Amino acid sequence: MIRTATHVGAWINDDDPTLGAETDITTVLSDVREIGFEGIELGHDAAFADAARQAGVPVIGARHGLNLLQSHMPEEQARLAPVLERLQAAGASLLSVHEMTESIHTNPRAPLSERPELPGHLWASFGAALDEITSFADGYGMKLMYHPQLGTMVQTPAEIAALIDATGPATGLLFDSAQIAYAGGEPLELFRRHAARIGHIHLGNVRPRVMDFGRANDWPYIAALRAGVFTVPGDPDGGLELDAILRAAMAGGYDGWVVTTAPQDPALYTPLSYQTMALRHLERMLGRGSGGAA
């Protein structure tokens, strides 16, 4: 069964704290209830889970940055435990992670060409460490989903494939259509290739002209984000064939959350309007809204 959720990043951005800095979590939760999403995914601030629980908005999971290549496992687990405890108390079921070692995705001056790359001989040990974190999260009832993130060591289709090869089946893949597209991948092709490992979906869109210009000029990730490269499903300005991805998910029996991500400037792209647009589009595709499934 497919369930629909939104992401707090549409209102309050994790990677660029200037976006949505004036927004209170109570506004976010009020909008989510008004729009009608079944849940919300949080960013790095798992403390928002307490507010969501009090507001009656189901928390499906949160985001966490790992430093597996720089720290020892006991340190990583000690840093992660309070996050897992808070999510467990909120009734969440998943944790989205990405490797932060030498990451440039929060640096507004670093072009994406300067991102780190993981040497080939380190993939096996990195995968083993990630599997250990997966097992640790499972002890709290959380399914771990690795999120390929622009500006980090796991960004391209080749790196996603290497991650899949280096980890066991318990470590899930978070499929993020917009991030995959910006990294040069073809989202539908990648979805079909790794469908067996995909346990969580971020269905995001891109504005092609902004994406093409940003890639041609080697923009920092933050610059592309601020320029409005990302948008929601159903936005006429979007250029990705998201309906085909959703059809593939339904045909393959995908059982999980579809999150309408759109990390963009909330002052320019009102989250209430854009996330409403996104959910109505998903409802039509799923045959739950005024229109039938495509």
* Total of helices: 11
Give the number of DSSP strands. 10
- The proportion of residues forming helix, as a percent range, comes to 25-40%
Structural class: alpha/beta
- Radius of gyration, CA atoms, in whole angstroms: 18 Å
Q: How does the major sheet shape up? A: 8 strands, parallel, barrel
When the domains are counted, the total is 1
What is the end-to-end distance?
A: 17 Å
Find the CATH superfamily: Divalent-metal-dependent TIM barrel enzymes
Overview of the molecule:
There is one protein chain. α4 packs across α5 (157-166). The two termini are 17 Å apart. The protein is of the alpha/beta class. β5 (143-146), α5 (157-166) and β6 (172-176) form a beta-alpha-beta unit. It has helices spanning 25-35, 48-55, 73-90, 123-138, 157-166, 177-182, 187-193, 208-216, 221-226, 242-251, 271-286, and strands at residues 2-7, 39-41, 59-66, 94-99, 143-146, 172-176, 198-202, 205-206, 230-231, 256-260. The protein is globular, with a radius of gyration of 18 Å. The chain has eleven helices and ten strands. The protein has one domain: Divalent-metal-dependent TIM barrel enzymes (TIM Barrel), CATH 3.20.20. It has an eight-stranded parallel barrel with strand order 1-2-3-4-5-6-7-10, surrounded by four helices.
Question: Summed up, what is this model?
Answer:
Helices cover 40% and strands 16% of the residues. The protein is built from eleven helices and ten strands.
